Amino acid sequence: MSLPTGATVVGITCTDGAVIATDSLISWGTTVLTEKGIKAFKLTDTIVLASAGLTSDYQMLVNRLRAQITLYELHQKKSISVKTLSKIVANTLYGRRMSPLYVQTVIVGVDDSGPSLYTLDMGGSLIPDKYTAAGTGTQTAYGVLETEFTSTLTVKEAEEIAIKAVKAGIARDVQSGGAIRIMSVTKDGVTEREVSQ
């Protein structure tokens, strides 16, 4: 997907959780707007969404989702699952397909079913996977993921692979850059850290 703003977003599931890593460069075409952009968001205590694409579009999507999560949990009297939230996002994007939100979205989390990861394009396709990459740095990041992913990874190991994959994206994609932000999700919650280049 060719967008006027770039990103490298990586998601990995692990035996004990899931990890998302993003770059922090916000650009518009050939102009750098900031190197301190936020592309990953904690939606619940155990679910994180990251997005590549237009900043305004994914910020609006996140704000809408936070309200929908609150309404769902009040009505259902239980925490929302990763799959249910991902389906809400898919329905939202599909409903906007004629006037789309320019986003590629990755959702990771941990619930009663264990760790899970979903990738969504701007048309609302909902794709479960073990690892993924999104944004303009996708191809280079996938090279690292396909080489290093195993089904026995721990969160700590997956963090290092995710950092390496985003670094590879930054090295080869002129629209990715800045610091690398990592958000790790386990049954105990979400931790976040930043790695400088």
Task: Describe the 3D structure.
This protein is an alpha+beta fold and 197 residues long. It has one domain (9-195): Glutamine Phosphoribosylpyrophosphate, subunit 1, domain 1, CATH 3.60.20. It has helices at 55-76, 82-95, 138-148, 155-172; strands at 9-13, 18-22, 26-28, 31-34, 40-44, 47-53, 103-111, 114-120, 126-128, 131-134, 180-186, 189-195. The chain is globular and about 45 Å long.
Main features:
single chain; 197 residues; alpha+beta; Glutamine Phosphoribosylpyrophosphate, subunit 1, domain 1; 5-stranded antiparallel β-sheet
Number of strands: 12
* CATH topology title: Glutamine Phosphoribosylpyrophosphate, subunit 1, domain 1
Structural Rg:
15 Å
**Residues in β-strands, percent:** 25-35%
CATH class: Alpha Beta
Q: Unreliable runs, pLDDT <50, ≥5 residues?
A: none
User: How far apart lie the N and C ends?
Assistant: 26 Å
Our count of helices gives 4
What is the structural class?
alpha+beta
Topology:
Layout: E1 9-13, E2 18-22, E3 26-28, E4 31-34, E5 40-44, E6 47-53, H1 55-76, H2 82-95, E7 103-111, E8 114-120, E9 126-128, E10 131-134, H3 138-148, H4 155-172, E11 180-186, E12 189-195
Antiparallel strand pairs: 1-2, 1-10, 2-11, 3-4, 5-6, 6-7, 7-8, 8-9, 11-12
Helix pairs in contact: 3-4
